[in-house]
Amino acid sequence: MQLEIINRELNESIKKVMLPQAIRISCIYLKKFYPNSTFEALYEKIVFKSNTSLSFQKSEIDRIRFIEEEGVVKAELTLNFLGIFGSSSPLPSHYSEMVLDSLDEDMVLYDFLNLFNHHLQKFIYPIWEKHRYYIQYKKDLSDRFSKYALSFLGLHNQNKEHSKLKLQKLISAIGILSMKHKSSGTIKSILKHYLSHNEIEVIQCIPAKYKIPSWQQSSLGSNNITLGSDFLIGESIISKNSKFRVLLKNIKSHEIIDYSILGKKLEEIKSILTFSLNEQFEHEVCLDIKKEEKVSFILGEKNYLGINCWIGDLRDDEQIIMA
Q1: Do β-strands 243-248 and 200-203 pair in parallel, antiparallel, or remain unpaired?
Q2: Same domain, yes or no, for 81 and 170?
Q3: Per the record, a Pfam family (predicted)?
């Protein structure tokens, strides 16, 4: 009785949909009978047949019928195209007429030719799906295209469970991630997509202090005293060539912990920057917090002094360098 209800409800509107949609609808209904089966296993339970009518057909699907044979529920899809017989048959019309005659007799010819129709029409959906990544995409990235995309980034064999990178976010940025050299605009685009935060700036040429090794320090009358070549004064040097700052603007009060040492996003930023940059640049993460988002320190609340709450005047905006 349940199959009869499904058949009646589906066939009221099935002629309005295309074949790929009809296949996915069939798999959804089959999933109710086989909840633990994969899509590939459910697809094997679909039987394709051709419509014997010689009249002009206005749709791809003639009907869907769910049947039960020896305790196994299957879906029969009768198509109006790409068949050995019927209105779209490439064979002479008298072959289709022979099939029509067999319907009134033993249906042997009809069933025999449908064996070929089934194996021919079964190829349609895989071909259609092959060029539609949004259809074959799986959350665990086990689909074929995701494996190819991750291979371009050298991440195909990456342990997805223990990886610090969000691989799902990287696939859509495979083009710019594959570039050898990346500008600040490119890094900003990657971070916006990866962090799902639109207000990001990458500030270049941040001053950084570096200690000069003892063997490179100048020793008057001895080592490293050639002007314009290796002569340096002091034990350290200020450089603007190898450091940049990632400025996250308009951070909300509830997001501050996520970008701190207590959260996960700070580690995510470090991981994606390390992966994206071929050159080893030093970087720091800075949070731009509006005065409206600043919270006063209150004992007993989930506030962490020095991270997400303040003591004293809260009337000014503030920038906090987290790392």
Answers
A1: antiparallel
A2: no
A3: T6SS_TssG
Q: At what angle do helices 265-276 and 184-195 cross, to 10 degrees?
A: 140
pLDDT higher than threshold 90 for residue 308: no
Please check whether residue 264 lies inside any domain of the structure: yes
pLDDT score recorded for residue 21: 94
Beta strands in the chain (DSSP E): 46-50, 61-69, 72-79, 200-203, 208-211, 236-239, 243-248, 282-289, 318-321
Q: Which candidate, 52, 53, 49, places its Cα nearest to that of 120? A: 49
Structural domain including 105 reads: 2-131
Residues 227 and 290 in one domain: yes
Note whether 51 and 79 are within 8 A (CB). Answer: yes
Structure tokens at 306: 């020095």
> b/e map of 37-75 (b: 16 or more CB within 10 Å)?
eeeeebbebbbbbbbbeeeebeebbbbbbbeeeeeebbb
Could you tell me if residue 209 is inside a domain? yes
User: Long-range contacts of range 99-103, CB-CB < 8 Å, 24 or more positions apart?
Assistant: 99/52, 100/52, 100/54, 103/52
Q: According to the model, what pLDDT value does residue 31 have?
A: 95
pLDDT-derived band at 104, boundaries 50, 70, 90: confident
Both structure tokens of 156 = 């195909």
Domain count, the chain: 2
Same domain, 170 and 290: yes
Euclidean distance between CA atoms 288 and 200, whole angstroms: 10
User: Quick one: 111 and 197 in the same domain?
Assistant: no
Tell me, yes or no, whether 161 lies in a domain. no
Please check whether residue 143 lies inside any domain of the structure: no
For the chain, first and last CA: distance in Å?
Answer: 65
